[in-house]
Backbone:
């Protein structure tokens, strides 16, 4: 929809990260969630999809963290931390001026590993706005490289049938109220070719 049915005046090739994210949220929230066009993605199971929702990191030292997108989950029946329950999404450009390691990973992915975003969750999503020549090969080489130990990568692979990449990371922090060591987090990477 972003490519084939964009809003009037929107050009995916020339837009910046913020404008792409705004239009993407509009499509997800107003065209998909509200209309229930995707099985299971509807107002009965999901609350609003929002941009830059302020949340706190794991230790509360940064109360104004703002992931690019947040999908609210309607699961009040579960014993969870309601305000932290959702799909947290970080979006980053991937191109010559925004390298995969320094921009996408060190300014994006790391936030899920250290407890800035999705610290109460087991899954998260990263969206790359990637120029066509950038593929998951670069991300794979970063995940394999022992010099990038700060990402605590346990496993990673491309899931070709869905055109996504999956990485699993250890997290070295404790959950609040003596709930134990944080579980690993699985981050799904979707790169939109722009």
Residues:
């Amino acid at each position: 929809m972003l490519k084939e049915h964009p809003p009037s005046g929107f050009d995916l090739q020339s837009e910046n990260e913020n404008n792409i994210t705004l239009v993407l949220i509009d499509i997800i929230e107003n065209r998909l969630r509200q209309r229930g066009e995707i099985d299971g993605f509807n107002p009965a199971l999901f609350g609003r999809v929002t941009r830059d929702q302020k949340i706190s990191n794991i230790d509360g030292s940064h109360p104004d963290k703002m992931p690019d997108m947040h999908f609210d989950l309607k699961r009040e029946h579960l014993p969870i931390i309601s305000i932290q329950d959702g799909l947290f999404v970080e979006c980053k450009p991937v191109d010559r001026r925004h390298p995969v390691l320094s921009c996408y990973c060190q300014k994006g992915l790391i936030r899920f590993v250290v407890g800035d975003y999705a610290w109460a969750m087991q899954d998260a999503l990263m969206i790359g706005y990637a120029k066509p020549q950038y593929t998951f090969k670069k991300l794979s080489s970063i995940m394999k490289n022992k010099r990038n130990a700060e990402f605590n990568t346990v496993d990673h692979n491309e899931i070709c049938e869905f055109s996504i990449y999956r990485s699993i990371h250890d997290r070295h922090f404790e959950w609040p109220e003596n709930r134990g060591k944080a579980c690993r987090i699985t981050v799904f990477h979707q790169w939109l070719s722009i």
Q: What stands out?
A: The chain has three helices and seven strands. The radius of gyration is 17 Å.
